[in-house]
Specification:
The structure holds 2 protein chains of 2 kinds. Chain A is of the alpha/beta class. Chain A contains 15 helices and 13 strands. Helix content of chain A is 38%, strand content 13%. In chain A, strand 12 and strand 13 form a beta hairpin. The chains are: A alpha/beta, B mainly alpha. The interface between A and B is large, with 74 and 59 residues.
Amino acid sequence: MLDFNQAAALGQAIAARQVSVREAAEQSLKAVACQKTKLNAWITVDPDQVLRQADDVQRRIDQGEAVSPLAGVPVAVKDNISTRGLRTTCGSRMLADYTPPYDATVVARLSRAGLVILGKTNMDEFAMGSTTETSWFGPTMNPWRPGHVPGGSSGGSAAATASGQVLLALGSDTGGSIRQPCAWCGLTGLKPTYGTVSRYGLIAYASSLDQIGPMALTAGDCRILYEILAGPDSRDSTSSPDSPLPADCKLKAWTGGAGRPLAGLTVGCLDDAAPVQPAISAARAAAVRQLEALGASVEPLAMPLLDEAVPAYYLIATAEASSNLARFDGIRYGYRPDDADVADIGDYYARGRSEGFGREVRRRILLGTFALSAGFYDAWYLQALKVRRLVCDRYAEALRRVDLILSPVSATTAPPLGASLADPLAMYQSDRYTVAANLTGLPALALPFGQDSQGLPVGMQLTGPSFSDRLLLAAGEHIQSAQPVTHCAVDGEVSA
Amino acid sequence: MDKKPDARTDIERVAKLAGLALDETERIELEQEMGRILDAFEAIQTVDTTASAPVYHPLEQVNTLRPDETQPSPERSDLLAPARCQKDGCLFVPRTVN
């Protein structure tokens, strides 16, 4: 975009008056229009509103108002994050005409920092999916290879960023929904520590697992965006009042010096017998070599319970979803069915919910309702919560031995369109490497590490202790200091 | 200990609890899919959790409250704007009592 491939550089050019905010916005709008049909990355873009924002930000910059290093930079917002006056659908028929009367806290913070909200990106319906194929508005394509999925559920944000329509995006991550599309689209993305970024205005999927986070080409851009997003919020009682690293966290002493900037860090490389594609194995080996070259000490790390974490995650997530989505009854807002011949109010609710929710959402609501129902609660939901305790304990133990944990984001690169939806169980199990960060609340950073034989990107993941988000991003910046920044033009050409 | 829903009876019971209406085709398909999913998820039943307390939430903090100060309220018209139907400044809802 405007020959910039990093948001920080575009922000500097805008601050230096080399580029106007309107020019940057118009360039993004042009890219959105050009790639709309091919990628389907967006659900709602209102060009008039974008240009009004751009002119307002330019005025604030011209008046010398303190904004931020990203003032004037266009940003994509996932369509489950509320935007006042701008349709917010969650990728669902249920909310296809819903326009929120208020901004999410993260959106208010973006606006205050002077970023221009370009529009709302496509996503799996209510964030339930790993491919961005369950959207009521149709699937999004992977810009690196449009016959393949971009990952999900934040696939629209990933596709828009990877194709250069924007340089920054917001995603949300309940079980890997920032990290996996970043990995499959060659991006960097952070699932922050639970509580560090406000969830106020995020339409909930699973409240104890959801987190909003930054997506960009580089860890450096993610860091700047994270600083705008993070911080306590009086409107979110689960936001953390501060972000302290635990007193016994070894990372506290790491300062990231020059030369061998990761010297002093011990990275545990997940020692796992589960099969992964050859490109993932190769990326893991390359990541180990790079970490060692930067001074880190890398050792193998066994992590038990990865297989059990997936069912525990899905039982908890769907149980919470069955409760959260109970609010969609067609009475106050959202999809309202024809009520001409309904028998009673229960019939009315059921008709509206069955017509308004898609198949994957209905399946997950049923699974969660089952797990919470009388006679099954102890064996399924309560047992899942106890397994969650064991997963938390194992990660706490591991992070007392090592500073960071290196693992794949996914066992595969992006599959072809349609391949995952045919087997929902396989889709759930593909979240094997990502769900633990949500069960534990730990921060995890997805970083691009090469491509497979088809040219599809591969991502690796670094997980750190609670509240080590900034240190994770700093480590990511050091790793990327030796890598070229690449994004993919929509015609399949890769540019550096 | 009950583990899985018992085919037809239970999927209908669960759908009713969930406020969903399933047609016959979908009921059969979902019954099969739920069965496969729960068969695979039985792995968690083998984990010894006798000494584990459940984790409902990743944060241990409780009662994080904002200062007890009056804040501006949203405008009534803004809150009503997304409603399908409104009348006289109120939500206009379908008849719920026959």
